[in-house]
Amino acid sequence: MIKKAIIPAAGFGTRGLPMTKVLPKEMLPIGGRPAIDYIVEEAVNAGIEQILMIVSRTKNLIVDYYDRSLELEAFLEQQNKQHLLNTLELPKVKIYYMRQFYPKGLGHAVSLAKDFIGNDPFAILLPDEIYLSTIKNPTKELIDAYTHYDKNVIALQQVDEEHLKSYGVIQVEKKEKERIYKISDIVEKPESNPPSNLAVTGRYILKPDIFSCLEQTKPGVGSEVQLTDAIKLMLQSEPAYGIEVASERFDIAKEADYIKLVQKVYTKQQGGGGIQ
Ligand code: G1P
Fold first, then answer.
1. Residue 276 included in any domain
2. Is there a contact between 202 and 267 (Cβ–Cβ < 8 Å)?
3. Which of 18, 53, 236, 273 yields a CA-CA distance of 20 to 30 A from 115?
4. C-alpha dist (Å) from residue 251 to 110, 262, 263
5. Is residue 99 a part of any domain in this protein?
6. Cβ(99)–Cβ(238) under 8 Å?
7. Into how many domains does the chain fold?
């Protein structure tokens, strides 16, 4: 039922400077593949058939990665290197691109997808956050909850108080059941008095109503149009649920997380364990 996803990948990647001046953080290598490929894989495994990537001028490597390299393929074929040819296979999903001309924030990036999305609910996957999932694919977990409740669903994680000011944070109306909360309010990067310790972590299933809310949303934190502020507005007419997802999350814009993730994937590859 949820077949379309948006991957907003247009940010400057300021946390990764100076390296991200030329190499998008989405292209950081993890187990021989770029980080963004884990996001695409998660989406495909959750049943997504069409992805719109929102990119900017410095993100052309992402577009190149999902293009075919016919000369390279011909060369490998001629050399009889089938095992290498297999590594070049592209994911089974249609990928579309759109440029975000101005760095006006995540909310603005998402608003660009209005025509692509149309009238159906859709997924958003933020490419900074990679989930190593051996239990349940987080996007699938959200889609299953959406199917059950027929309401907007957002991924959450409990975060220590000192870090909450880097996230969107929800206020809980009630705990539905283990790991599932009905949301009464949401605030982007609270400087003080966060309404809970449950932070928004980069996966969303939203109804298309979000687009009219985004149109009404003024720039917020960092003078950017915040997706969180549009969700807050949408809460007035459309309930939302939050789910503490089961999988382990890595924020690849944090070097320590990135190194840990690379090590884990390497260990898995050596032992042959799979990532869902
Ligand atoms: C964005 C969202 C924020 C969310 C976070 C998750 O912030 O605005 O609500 O908690 O992603 O990573 P950013 O990290 O882009 O500043």
1. no
2. no
3. 236
4. 20, 12, 14
5. yes
6. no
7. 1
User: Contact, 204 vs 142, CB < 8 A?
Assistant: yes
List, for residues 23-63, the tens digit of each pLDDT value.
Answer: 999 999 999 999 999 999 999 999 999 999 999 999 999 99
CATH at 57: 3.90.550.10
Closest by CA position to 5, among listed 59, 58, 41: 41
Which protein residue has the closest C-alpha to ligand 1 atom 15? 106
Query: What is the span of the domain harbouring residue 113?
Result: 4-271
E strand intervals along 115-246: 122-125, 129-132, 152-158, 168-177, 180-188, 198-206, 240-244
In short, whether 130's Cβ falls inside 6 Å of ligand 1 is no
Structural contact between residues 130 and 247, judged by C-beta atoms closer than 8 angstroms: no
How far does the centroid of ligand 1 lie from the alpha carbon of residue 167, in Å?
5
Give the C-alpha separation, 94 to 76, whole Å. Answer: 25
Per residue in 195-227, pLDDT (tens digit) is: 999 999 999 999 999 999 999 999 999 999 999
**What confidence score (pLDDT) does residue 272 get?**
61
Tell me how far the alpha carbon of residue 72 lies from the centroid of ligand 1, in angstroms.
38
Identify the residue whose C-alpha is closest to ligand 1 atom 5.
167
